[in-house]
Amino acid sequence: MFIALQCCRPEALNPSIFYFFDECGTDVNSPANDLSRPLHLASREGHTNAVQHLLERGAGDSLKDSHGRTGSVLFRDLFLFTALRQWFNKFA
């Protein structure tokens, strides 16, 4: 799951990836080595469908990674970065 969320472009994320959570009983809050969870990765990579799916399955948005960031903070930062980049590109 972690690899799929990191490697896929948001528009290319295959919905079958959710099989691991829906059918296999995978814990949506299982941490990686740096305490990041699937919600952190989905948020950081801009996978809005995955974020919604994970939250619906009980992913904890209050859980922090090793840098003290929650999934919503990462998603907000990505949104702000994208908006700023688009704004600056108007003048390039």
TrEMBL record:
<protein>
    <submittedName>
        <fullName>Uncharacterized protein</fullName>
    </submittedName>
</protein>
<dbReference type="Pfam" id="PF13857">
    <property type="entry name" value="Ank_5"/>
</dbReference>
<dbReference type="InterPro" id="IPR002110">
    <property type="entry name" value="Ankyrin_rpt"/>
</dbReference>
<dbReference type="InterPro" id="IPR036770">
    <property type="entry name" value="Ankyrin_rpt-contain_sf"/>
</dbReference>
<feature type="repeat" description="ANK">
    <location>
        <begin position="34"/>
        <end position="66"/>
    </location>
</feature>
<keyword id="KW-0040">ANK repeat</keyword>
